[in-house]
């Protein structure tokens, strides 16, 4: 009875706090889209409400950067209303104020990647994923903040500075989609986009009590270096509800002939209803991978407590891990990332003036990547394949895998990265996320959901992992879990409840 009473009190407190937030910005994205399409809300009203809200809260957290001129944005909102008056609905995001992650090009808006090398660069065309969101009716109001070149799960850079965690302004927001997650948590955007190589959609979602979805490679198409080379970085959606996550994914996903390795299916499939019984589904809890990955005290306990919600839905949860050694997979991840990321930074590294502006982690990636032979890259790829096959064999017994979205709770904003976890020294700038990187190496879709709050009141998340290209399975289990927990709506950031 104590748990029920506490839950009821939290819900009542949350409802009272939400009532103080402007109605437009606390609407979920699907409800907002329906209200705009039915002309119950004008795009002008929506834009004004969001810009006012951003003006109030963004200076406290620095999540949205390169914010565009208000008059110009209002003019675009008026044009969206004029389109509606003519019976033209561009798509599910018609009239939505949207800020794109600053690792994705948007025509006419500064694209810095958080680097002083690119601080004045303005693209002349949209990246493919931005092009799709624009075509669906989004109005780009600016960018969301990132770590420099997306390196490290900690959103801080020398161009815009740090993004602060809305649950504790002295802590990291995570990354690299940190600005996107914070903007969502504070209701400054209806939905948000991100990218993920080593946890960049999952870690910040977990640390900001929202949802983030790393999809299988090719589900959200990309152009450029990965046209004919399957990498490990993918774009995907972030949102405050699973329904909204699916809404944005339906816009982002689907084949494009400019991306020949992209999935042949249509993104519209993700707009299907998510209600589904998950009773009897078998779940493997990966935990700390049999001691391979160190965790800050409280992380595993917080996530284990969340497992009870899956059991209450009728799922069967057991401890299990893939039958494969973990350290070789981590070492293979390091080499593949050095080859892929380091190769991309060479153009800057080879210019002494620009090299001096690169963060040490970027230099480390380039210099170590340059030492790799083609055969070493091939060997790392062979390990990756063996690991992926081992994970798929585990799916022969289980429908889903679960594990935390990070190995620590949000750390001090002034740290570069955690140098120790549970007494273990981290050998690289990203080793503190190595358990999460192993999921990247599997190729599986992984949907980050809120798991709850640790002993210090800081958020943590869980990854719902399904077999490759089983995105709908992730969405259905996440939706059922959300309906049972309501973490995002029940636990607002203190900035909103003050």
H/I helix tally: 18
What portion of residues belong to β-strands? 5-15%
Please identify, by name, the CATH architecture. Answer: Alpha-Beta Complex
Instruction: Look at the structure and name the CATH superfamily.
Output: Amidase signature (AS) domain
Q: Could you walk me through the main structural features you see in this protein, from its secondary elements to its overall organization?
A:
The chain is built from 18 helices and 15 strands. By secondary structure, the chain is α+β, with helices and mostly antiparallel strands. The chain has a single domain, classed as Alpha-Beta Complex (Amidase signature (AS) enzymes), CATH 3.90.1300. The strands form 4 sheets. An 8-stranded mixed sheet has the order 6-8-7-14-15-11-9-10. The longest helix has 23 residues, at 327-349.
SSE arrangement:
Blueprint (H helix, E strand, L loop, with lengths): L1 H18 L3 H4 L2 H9 L5 H19 L2 E2 L4 H16 L11 E5 L26 H8 L3 E6 L19 E2 L2 E5 L5 H8 L6 E5 L6 H5 L3 E4 L19 E6 L2 H11 L29 E4 L13 H14 L3 E4 L7 H23 L2 H4 L4 H11 L3 H21 L5 E5 L15 E2 L2 E2 L8 H9 L3 E8 L5 E7 L5 H15 L1 H4 L3 H4 L1
Parallel strand pairs: 2-3, 9-10, 9-11
Antiparallel strand pairs: 1-3, 4-5, 6-8, 7-8, 7-14, 11-15, 12-13, 14-15
Helix pairs in contact: 4-5, 9-16, 11-13, 11-14
Essential attributes:
single chain; about 500 residues; alpha+beta; Amidase signature (AS) enzymes; eight-stranded mixed sheet; three-stranded mixed sheet; 18 helices; 15 strands; disordered N terminus
């Amino acid at each position: 009875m104590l748990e029920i009473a506490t839950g009821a009190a939290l819900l009542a407190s949350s409802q009272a706090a939400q009532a103080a937030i402007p109605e437009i910005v606390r609407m979920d994205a699907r409800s907002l889209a329906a209200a705009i399409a039915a002309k119950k809300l004008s795009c002008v009203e929506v834009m004004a409400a969001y810009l006012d809200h951003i003006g109030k809260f963004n200076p406290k957290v620095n999540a949205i950067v390169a914010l565009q001129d208000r008059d110009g944005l209002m003019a675009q909102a008026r044009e969206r209303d004029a389109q509606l008056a003519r019976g033209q609905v561009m798509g599910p995001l018609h009239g939505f104020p949207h800020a794109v992650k600053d690792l994705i090009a948007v025509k006419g808006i500064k694209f810095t990647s958080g680097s002083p090398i690119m601080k004045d660069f303005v693209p002349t065309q949209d990246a493919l994923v931005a092009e799709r969101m624009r075509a669906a009716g989004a109005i780009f109001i600016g960018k969301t903040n990132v770590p420099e070149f997306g390196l490290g799960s900690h959103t801080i850079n020398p161009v815009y500075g740090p993004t602060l965690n809305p649950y504790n302004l002295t802590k990291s927001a995570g990354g690299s989609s940190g600005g996107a997650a914070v903007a969502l948590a504070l209701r400054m955007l209806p939905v948000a986009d991100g990218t993920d190589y080593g946890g960049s959609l999952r870690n910040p979602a977990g640390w900001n009590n929202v949802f983030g979805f790393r999809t299988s490679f090719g589900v959200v198409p990309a152009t450029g270096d990965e046209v004919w080379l399957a990498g490990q970085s993918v774009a995907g959606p972030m949102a405050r509800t699973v329904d909204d996550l699916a809404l944005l994914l339906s816009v982002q996903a689907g084949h494009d002939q400019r991306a020949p390795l992209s999935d042949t299916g249509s993104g519209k499939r993700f707009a299907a209803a998510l209600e589904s019984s998950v009773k009897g589904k078998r779940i493997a809890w990966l935990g700390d991978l049999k001691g391979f990955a160190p965790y800050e005290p409280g992380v595993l306990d917080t996530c284990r407590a969340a497992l009870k919600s899956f059991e209450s839905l009728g799922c069967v949860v057991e401890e299990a891990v893939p039958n494969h050694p973990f350290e070789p997979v981590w070492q293979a991840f390091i080499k593949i990332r050095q080859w892929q990321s380091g190769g991309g930074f060479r153009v800057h590294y080879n210019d002494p003036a620009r090299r001096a502006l690169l963060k040490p982690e970027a230099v480390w990636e380039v210099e170590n990547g340059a030492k790799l032979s083609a055969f070493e890259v091939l060997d790392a790829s062979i390990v990756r394949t063996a690991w992926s096959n081992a994970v798929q064999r585990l799916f022969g017994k289980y429908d889903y895998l679960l594990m935390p979205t990070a190995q620590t709770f949000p750390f001090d904003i002034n740290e570069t990265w955690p140098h120790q976890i549970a007494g273990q020294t981290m050998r690289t700038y990203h080793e503190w996320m190595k358990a999460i990187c192993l999921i990247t190496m599997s190729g599986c879709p992984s949907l980050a959901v809120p798991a709850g709050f640790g002993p210090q009141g800081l958020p943590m998340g869980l990854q719902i992992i399904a077999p490759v290209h089983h995105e709908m399975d992730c969405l259905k289990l996440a939706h059922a879990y959300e309906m049972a927990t309501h973490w995002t709506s029940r636990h607002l950031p203190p900035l909103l409840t003050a």
